[in-house]
Design goal:
204 residues; alpha/beta; two-stranded antiparallel sheet; 6 helices; 20% strand
């Protein structure tokens, strides 16, 4: 008697423990549309690199704190990465994910003329979180972040790119689209809705 062929099992969708976000020109406007939409119950930690003037103090954590339900901090070296918390890279330091997970700050040379560099964050986060990572690349005027998105893709993470038509500076998302195959290409409001949907599925 012929036995029925076994049904292929569907691989479970991973829980996403961290979200990394990068952007440059136009990226802060995208964050203004994205971060305030996220709930205080979000599980995943979020680490953010925006290209900043290296000789000026960043006010990003202060500006967004009044608009967001999630706790926000400027990243500090060796700080434990807590779930449901947003960390902004400080000016003139690369932001990395270290074992723990902990934050590591570095004064290694600039990458793509930038310190902090999006690639540096994304690559270190991919090494640590693997398929449990969401990478989000926003508006910007150079290709920083594209190599980092390749690292996240190779690790099995989820790739999200701001739609170039929505980006004031589309070079950065276009570079990612040329090198990777993101699962989602969305305006910032769509990215926020995606994160909410994943949250409601208990994946964030």
């Amino acid at each position: 008697m012929t036995q029925p062929r076994p049904t292929a099992l569907t691989a479970p969708t991973p829980r996403y423990d961290a979200i990394v976000v990068g952007g440059s020109s136009g990226g802060i406007d995208a964050l203004m549309r994205l971060l305030p939409a996220l709930p205080s119950t979000l599980h995943a930690a979020m680490l953010v690199v925006m290209h900043l003037q290296r000789d000026r103090r960043s006010l990003l954590a202060h500006i967004f704190r009044a608009r967001c339900a999630l706790p926000l901090h400027e990243a500090q070296d060796q700080l434990t990465i807590a779930p449901g918390t947003v960390y902004f890279a400080p000016p003139d330091y690369h932001l990395l994910v270290d074992a723990g997970p902990r934050i590591a700050l570095s004064v290694d040379p600039p990458v793509h003329f930038s310190r902090p560099s999006i690639d540096v964050l994304f690559e270190s986060a991919a090494d640590h979180y693997g398929e449990r990572l969401v990478g989000i690349l926003l508006s910007g005027a150079n290709d920083d972040g594209a190599r980092g998105m390749q690292a996240i893709e190779a690790a099995g993470g989820l790739l999200v790119v701001q739609a170039p038509a929505d980006a004031p500076m589309p070079v950065m998302p276009q570079a990612a689209l040329a090198r990777t195959t993101p699962q989602h290409v969305l305006a910032p409001e769509g990215i926020a809705q995606l994160l909410l949907d994943l949250h409601h599925q208990a994946l964030l």
